[in-house]
Amino acid sequence: MAQYLFLFFAAICAGGAVNLLIQRKTINSALSLIVVMGSLALIYLLLGAEFVAVIQVIIYAGAIMVLFVFVIMLLNAGEEEQAKGSRVAKIVGIPGLFIGGIIGIWVLLQHAPLQKTMIPIGALYGPADQVGMMLFTKYLLAFEVTSVLVLIAIMGAVVLARRSHS
Amino acid sequence: MSALTFLIVAVIKIVVTLGVLLTVVAYTVWLERKVVGRMQNRWGPSRVGPFGLLQPLADGIKFLLKEDLTPPYVEKHIYLLAPGLALIMALTSIALVPIGPVIHLFGISTPVQITGVVDSAGHASDINIGILVILGLTSLGVYGIALAGWSSNSKYSLLGSLRASAQMISYEVSLGLSLVGVLIMSGTMSLNGIVHAQLGTFFQGTGFGFIPRWNIFQGQFVAFFLYMIAAFAETNRIPFDMPEAETELVAGYHTEYSAMKFAMFFMAEYANMVTVACIASVMFLGGWSGPPLPFLPAAVQAFLPLVWFSSKIFFFLFLYIWIRGTLPRFRYDQLMSFGWKFLFPLALANVIVTAFIVAIRA
Amino acid sequence: MTTHFQPWLIPILPLVGGLINGLFGKRFSKAAVATVALFFTAASFVVACGHACILLNSGADALETSYGTWIRAGSFSVDFGIYLDHLSMIMMLVVTGVGFLIHVYSVAYMEHEGGYYRFFAYLNFFMFFMLTLVLANNYLLMFVGWEGVGLASYLLIGFFFLKDSAANAGKKAFITNRVGDFGFLIALFLLIQHFGSLRYATLIDITSHFPVETAAGFLTAIGLLMLVGACGKSAQIPLYVWLPDAMEGPTPVSALIHAATMVTAGVYMVCRSNFIFSRAPIALLAVAIIGTLTSFFAATIGITQTDIKRVLAYSTVSQLGYMFMAAGVAAYSAAVFHLMTHAFFKALLFLGAGSVIHGVGGEQDMRKMGGLRKYMPWTFATMTIATLAISGIPPFAGFFSKDEILWQAFSSPHGSKAFWFLGLVTAFMTSFYMFRLLFMTFFGEYRGAQPEAHSAHGSHDDHGHDSHQGSPHESPWLMLGPLVLLGVLSIVGGWVGIGHRFEHFLDPVILNVSADQNALPSAEAAATPAGGEQEAAGGYTDTEHLLMYLSVVVALAGLGLAYLLYIKSPELPAKIAAGIGGLYKLVLNKYWIDELYGAVIIGPLLAISRVVLWQSVDQKAIDGTVNESAVAARDVSQVVRMQQSGLIRSYAGWIAVFAAVVVAYMVWMGTR
Amino acid sequence: MIPISWYLLLSAFLFACGVTGFLTKRNLITLFMSIELMLNGVNLSFITFATRLGTLDGHIFVFFVMVVAAAEAAVGLAIIISVYRTRETLNVDRVNLLKL
After folding, report:
1. Do residues C427 and C551 touch, judged by C-beta distance below 8 A?
2. Are residues A41 and A109 in the same domain?
3. Range of the domain at A22
C-alpha cells in the first residue's frame, strides 16, 4: 500500500520536475513546480513529518509560489525565447548529467544499509509541539538570526521593488 | 471498525457534508439577496416559489443551461483549471471542521467530522494540525483567482487577480496570527481538541454558570475581530472586494467567465464564507459546544450541538450580508496600509500578550 | 575628607566652561561667551580658595584623593588622583586667581577680534590643563596637563592663524616643547622601571630609603631628564627660543601662559620632584647652572630689544632662570616664592604692555611710543609699580623673593658665590632694561605714528581699533581693573616673605625629604637654624642684610643708568651701540641662536626628510611596492578576467562541474 | 515499508532537475524556480534522514531552509522586477553587462 502511494506521489513529483524543465511558458513551469511541492508535502506525510508537510504547503506552495505567479503575472513573462544552447553545455553537461545520475543511482542502490533500512508508515516523527520545542530551545539563536534575516529581506525587497522617484 | 465500514462511513460523511454545504451555499445566496433587498427597501427574490425559496434552484439551472463560451486568446488549460481549483480548495476545507460531537448510529460511533475518527477510548480525534491544513488550503485557494485573472488575458481580469493575490497574501498573515492566540490558549492545533478545550462554563455554581468557556470570552475577542476582518479580506467580500470591484473592473478576475465556470467561482466564494464561519465558530465560539440547557429533554439534548453550530454559522453568514449591506468599499492603498500597518501589528501584539498571560498562568 | 572637599571641581569647572564655549560659543553673543568664561573661571577660583582653607585648617601635609583607576597594567596602576599640598595650593591659587583677572582683562582686550568664543574656549581649556598639571597626584596625570597646556599655548600663540608669523611661532613652540617632553617622558619611564609607580606619595617613601648619589646614578639620570623637560616648558637654555616668538599670540595669552603660569610649570615640576633632586646633587647642580646662565643670558638680550613684548619675554626667561637657580640651590620655597611674585608683576607688566599696545593702536615698537604718561596715567602707574617690583626695589614684591633667591644662592650648601654674583649682575641688568622700557614708553614725548599715517596698525598684534584712530588713549576700566588689582598684589605679594616666613610655609613639602638623614638638607632646612638664632634681628643675619643692601643698590644703579641713558641724554645709547658695534649686533640678534639652530638642527633634518625619507623611502620603496603590486594584479586579472563572461549560467556551469567532481571523489572514497 | 534509498533517489532526481534547469533555462524566473527545486530536493533528504535517525533536527533544518527560501524569493523577485524595469528583458543571457 505505502509503496504504491509513495511511487504514485514520487511519479507526480518527478513528472512535475521534468515538466518544469520542458515547459516554455514560465507560468506552466511555475504550476508544475507547485505540483512538485504539493506532492512533496504528501511524501513528507508518508515520512510522518506532518508539520513540515503542512508548512511546505503553506510556505512554499502558499506563499513563495504565489509570489512567483504574482511576479509572472506582473511582468507578463510569456514565452522564453529559445536561443541555441552553448556548445559546452551540450558537450559537457548532458553526458555529465547522465554519468552523475548513473553513479548516484548505482551508489544508492548498491549501498546495502540504505536498502535495508525501511521506514515504517504512520508513525509520527515530527509532531508540531516537539519541533517548536526544539526550535525555541536548541536552535533558538538560529531562529532569532533567521527572523532578523527575514526582516532584512523584507526591507530589501521593498527598497528594490519601489519605483525610484528621483 | 473494519476498513470497509470505515470507508463506507467516510464516504457517507463526505457526501452528506458536501450536500449540506452546497445547499447552505445556495441558500446563502438567496438569503443575501433577500436580506440586502430588505436593507435597501426592496423585496428581493419573491417570484420563484414562496418567498422566492426556489430561486437558487432556478439560478443553478440557468447557469447549467447558459452558453459556456471560452473567449479567444485565453490560456486554455489554465483558464479551465482555475475555477475548478478555486472551488475544490473552497470545498475541501470543510472536511476538517468538527461539526458535532461523537454520534452513535447503528452501533457505529463516529464524530460528525469528515476527518474525524474515534480512538480506542471512544473519544473523537482528528488531524492534530487541522487548523494548519485549513490555512494551507486557503492559501492554495489564491491560485484559483490569480490564474483565472491571468489566463483570461484581459486587463480587468489581470488587475483583479493581481489585487486578489496581493490582498490575500497580505491578509493571510494577519489571519494566521490572529489564530495563534487561540492555539496558545488551547494548546493544540487539532480543531477537535480546540472545541473540547472550550467545553464547560465559567463561574460554576454562581448565577452566571451559563457562560460557556469560549475563547472569545477568554480574552481572545481582539483576535476574534482581527480574524473576522482578515477573513472578510480573504474571501474578497465587501468591504474588501477589490478583486471584483464591479465599478472599477467590470467583474474583476472572473470577468471573462460565464455559465458554470462563473458559477464555480461564485460557489467557491460562498463556500469560503461558510468555511470562515465554521472556523470562526470553532476557534472562538466553541464550535458545537454551547451553554448547557439542562431543562431540555434528552432527545433534544442530542441535537443541541448541531443546533448551536448551525446557529453560529447562520450568525456569521448574516453578519457577512449585513456588512455587505452597510459598508462601502475600501480604496486599494487603504486596504494595503490597513492590512499591514494596523491588522498585522495588532495581531502580533495579541499573540505576545496572550503568550505572556498563558506563561504567567502556567 | 568632608563633603566640602571636592578638589576635582577646580579643574573641571574651566573644562565645562571651555566645552560650552567651544561647542556652542559660535551661536552665543560676545557678552554670553564672556559671561560663561568668567563665571566658570571665577567659580574655579572660589572653589580653589575654599580648598586652600580646608588644607590649611586640616593641618595635614597633603590631602590626596583618588577618583578611580585610569590605567592598570599588572602591578603598575595610575589613578585619576588629586594631590593637594602647600605647593600645589599656591600654584592653584596663582593659576586660578591670575587666570581669572586675565580673563576679565581679555573681555575688553579681545573685543574687536574675530573668534572671540574660540579665544575664551582655549583660555578655559588652558586653565583646565594647567590645574590638572598642578593638582595631579602622579606624574602621568601631570604629564597630561603638561601636554595639554602645551597644546593650549600652541593654539593661542597661533590664534591669529592667518598670520604666517603667528602660525610658525605656534609650531615652533610646540616642536621645541616636544624636545623637552621627550626628556620628561624618558624620565617617567625610568621612574616606572625603577620604582614601579608614578604616584608622588609612593615615590616619596620609596626614595626616602635611597642614599644620596654622589656619583651619577639613575636618580641623577631621572633628574637630568626632568630638567630637560623643564627647560622645554620653562624656556631655559637651550630650549628657550620659542618663548620670544610666542609673543605673536594675543597679549593676555602672553600674560597668562607665557609669563604667569605655564612657563612656571617647569619650576613647579622641579620643586615637586625635590625628593629626587635632593638625592641627585649633580642634577641639582645642572639645574642651578642652567638657571643662572639663562637668567644672565636672557637679560643681556633683553637690554637691546625694542619690541615691548619681546623685552618682557626675555625678562620672563631671565626671571625663570632665577627660579631655576633657586631650585638648583635647593631653595625650592624661594623658587616658588619668586614664582608667585613673578606671576603677579609679570602678568601686570604684560597686561600693562597690552594696555599700551591697545592704547597706541597695535604698535609694539617702543621707539614709536613715549610720553604715554599723560595719555594713560593708570597704565603708567601700574606699570611703574610692576617695574619697581621686578627690579627688586623694596618694599615691592620682587625685592623679597629675589633677595631671598640671592641669599640662598650665596648661603645654601649647594649654592656658590658664582651663582650669587651672576644673579646680582642679572638683577642690575633687569632693573636697567625694565626702566629702559618704562622710560621709552611713558616718558619723553609721543613718537608714535600720526592719525593719517597709521602704517604699523594691526601689524603685530592684530588689533582692530578702527573706532579710535590717532592719539593714544587710556584703556577701558575693564582692562584697568585687573591692572590695579595686580598692582596691589605686586606690592603686598612679597610681604609674606619677610623674615623667612615663606620658606617654612613649604616645609611640609620639602622637609618630608630632608627629614630623613640620608637626603641632602634643603636650603631652608639649613638656613632655618641660621635665622633661628637671630630671630631678634628680624630673622636676618648680618651677611644677609649686607647682601640685601647690595641688591637694592644694584637695582637703583640700574634705574639710574636707564634714567641717564633714556631721559637725560637719549642720544647716548646710539653712540654706545656704535661704539661696541660687534657686540651690540651680536646681542641685538640674540646671539644668532635661532640661526644657529636653523643651520645645525632644522636644516639637516629637513634635508634628510626630503631626500631620504620622502624621495627614496616613501616615493621609491613604499609607493613603488604598492604600484608594482597593483600592476601585477592588473596583469594577472588581464588573463583571468576572460573567464568573466557576464553569463550567469556559465558560472553556474562551472560550479556544477566542480561540485560534481567533488561528489564523485567523495563517492569514490566512500565506496572503496 | 519503503527503503530509504527511494526517497534519496527522488531527492537526488529533484536536485539534478534543478541543476539542469538552472543550466539550461534562460528565463530569470525559471532559473529561480530551478533553485527552489534544488532546495526541495535537499529538504526531502533532510526529512528522510531525520526520520531514519529518529531525530527532529532534520525538520528544523528544513524549516530554516524554507524561511531562507522565502526571504530569498522576496528579495530575488524584487531584483528580477527591477532588472526587468531597467533591461526590459528576463533573458539572463541579455543581462550580461557585468563583465570585463
Report:
1. yes
2. yes
3. 2-125
Let me know whether A87 and A147 are in one domain: no
Chain C touches chain A, with at least 3 Cβ pairs below 8 Å, answer yes
**Are both A41 and A83 inside the same structural domain?**
yes
pTM confidence score: 0.56
Predicted confidence band at A117 (pLDDT cuts at 50, 70, 90)? Answer: low
* pLDDT confidence tier of residue C330, bands split at 50, 70 and 90: confident
Q: How far apart are CA C68 and CA C66, in angstroms?
A: 6
Confidence of residue C45 (pLDDT cuts 50, 70, 90): very high
Q: What are the angstrom distances between the C-alpha of B253 and each of B60, B146, B249, C60, C267?
A: 21, 8, 8, 96, 94
In whole angstroms, give the CA distance from residue B160 to residue B153: 12
Domain count of the fold of chain A: 2
Residue boundaries of the structural domains of chain D? 4-87
A80 and A39 co-located in one domain = yes
Residues A117 and A154 in one domain: no
Residues with Cβ within 8 Å of residue C547, at least 6 apart in sequence: C403, C406, C407, C410, C420
- Domain co-membership, A54 together with A118: yes
| A105 contacts in chain C (CB < 8 Å) | none
Q: Do D99 and C652 touch (CB under 8 A)?
A: no
Which range (B195-199, C273-277, C298-302, D44-48) has the least confidence?
Answer: B195-199
pLDDT in tens, C66-105: 888 888 888 888 888 899 888 888 889 989 999 999 999 8
* Residue C297 bridge partners (DSSP): none
Q: Which three cell numbers stand for residue A22?
A: 520542458
DSSP readout, C185-230?
HHHHHHHHHHHS--BHHHHHHHHTTSPP-SS--HHHHHHHHHHHHH
Taking CB atoms and an 8 Å cutoff, what residues of chain C touch D79?
Answer: none
Residue A133 sits in the same domain as residue A100: no
Q: Are residues A63 and A140 in the same domain?
A: no
Given phi > 0 = left and psi -120 to 50 = alpha, else beta, which region is C63? Answer: beta
In a mutational test of the A interface, the residue from C661, C662, C667, C672 whose CB has the highest number of chain A CBs within 10 Å is C667
Fold adopted by D4-87: Helix Hairpins (1.10.287)
Q: Phi/psi of residue B117, each to 5°?
A: -130, 170
